[in-house]
Amino acid sequence: MRKKWIGIVLTLGILFLSLATTGLTAELVVEQDVEKDFVLGKEFARVSDNFIVLFNTASSMNKKLPGSDMTRLQFAKEILRQANDGLPDLGYKAGLYLYSPFKPVYAMKTYNRDVYGDAIDSLPDRGRGPTLIQESLRKLDSVLAGLSGRTAVFVFWSGIYADMPGQKKPAQLAKELVQKYDVFFYVIDVEEDARGNDELRKLAGTREWGRVVPIEEIIDKPAGSVGAVFVLTPTVIERTKIVTRIVDVKLDNVIFDYNQSAVRSKFHDEMNALAGVLEAKPKSYVILAGHTCNRGPGEYNLRLSRLRAESVENYLVQNLGVSRGRIITQWYGETAPVVSNATSEGRSLNRRVEAMILGLD
Question: Contact 254/265 with Cβ under 8 angstroms?
Answer without folding.
Answer: no
